[in-house]
Amino acid sequence: MKKAFFALLLAILTLSAFSQKMKTPGKAKPVETPGMTKANLQKMKLLQDSLHILSNAIVYDSVAAVRRKACYAFIPKFVAALKLDNSFYFPFDSFETISKIYPADSSFRIFTWQLFFTVPVKLPAKYSKTGRDTVFQKTAVRYYGVIQMRSKELKMFPLYDATDTLSYGTEQVLGPQNWWGQLYYNVIEQTSGGKSYYTLFGFQAPDVLTRRKIIDILTFDEQGRPKFGAPMFWFKYDDSTSTKTGDTLSRFFIEYNGEASTVLNYDRDLELIVFDHVAPPSDKSKGATFSYVPDGTYEGFKWVGNHWQWIEKVFTFAINEDDNPPIPAPLFGTPKHQPELPKDGDPK
Fold first, then answer.
1. Span 102-140, pLDDT tens digits
2. Distance between CA atoms of 235 and 169, rounded to whole angstroms?
């Protein structure tokens, strides 16, 4: 009995020490966690079983038509689960292919997922080796997401992927109806002038050859509606290998070869956003961003007052190989509930 007591005490002390080491941009206030009724909890568990199967099929099934069908079946079931009172506090632990992030204050959470499918493309005879019109299947990707606000009754904002209609590297302020689709894998919070600014980190596979990692700013207007993008990335960038053209950007991204692995995330020890500098493998490849790869140097952004200030070189950064990703601990849900970012270059 004594051994069990001391083992428990040691575990509590270890957990406490670990939590004190974690640096977060803001200090979250404790919030009481409401519970779900037994009846709703039972409904939720049954729905989660179905959602788990469907969400895995969206990503892992080898047949494109089955993946698409699973995605379309997943959405109404997921909405039904979210409609249950206090669903915000249900962790959806079984999700393996659905990204789920919380800010440190847990005022909301965002679910995102991706669907790879095929679309028929007609190749005119003059471009075909056979001399006849040829139809082939092209791989495409669509992103889905929803922001769920912390409340008893459901308050959510579905996110509609409008990437196909947006200009390349758009600097527009976007909303849920014209969202730049991506998988979110981290969020941190800063405040300025009494307003919260949430910096989102996302992953996008626009085609088979190319990958992007994106930093965006999420805010909520006076009516509580989400907005994506704000002129908060300040820097002067004259590097000809870069796709960045302004001194102040509303969002920031790196675009690179789908087989490469890159870093773009917040480092709590350095208190910086750190990312790989990507460059073409040769002078002939300049501008062909699908060929870009990391060149071994790192750039960064540091929060200064009310914006992210660009840092040309981050000399002290080393990739953290432990099991603790740089994700602040939210009040509800924990980092362990969040699936790993899909491996760069792996469409599934």
1. 999 999 999 999 999 877 666 676 666 676 766 666 778
2. 16
Is 53 part of any domain?
no
Tally of domains within the chain: 1
Q: Report d(CA 156, CA 150) in Å as an integer.
A: 9
302 domain-assigned: yes
Q: What angle do CA 8, 9, 10 make, to 5 degrees?
A: 90
| Assigned token pair, 250 | 């509303």
- What's residue 167's pLDDT? 86
What is residue 68's predicted lDDT score, i.e. its pLDDT?
94
Orientation angle between helical segments 38-60 and 64-82, nearest 10 degrees? 160
Q: Does 52 reside within a domain?
A: no
State how far the Cα of 340 lies from the Cα of 100, in Å rounded to an integer.
Answer: 10
Q: Provide the residue range defining the domain that includes 287.
A: 98-337
Output the pLDDT for position 132. Answer: 73
For residue 342, being part of any structural domain is answered with no
Q: Is 148 strand, coil or helix?
A: strand
Q: Are strands 226-228 and 233-234 parallel, antiparallel or unpaired?
A: unpaired
pTM of the predicted model as reported, rounded to 2 decimal places: 0.78
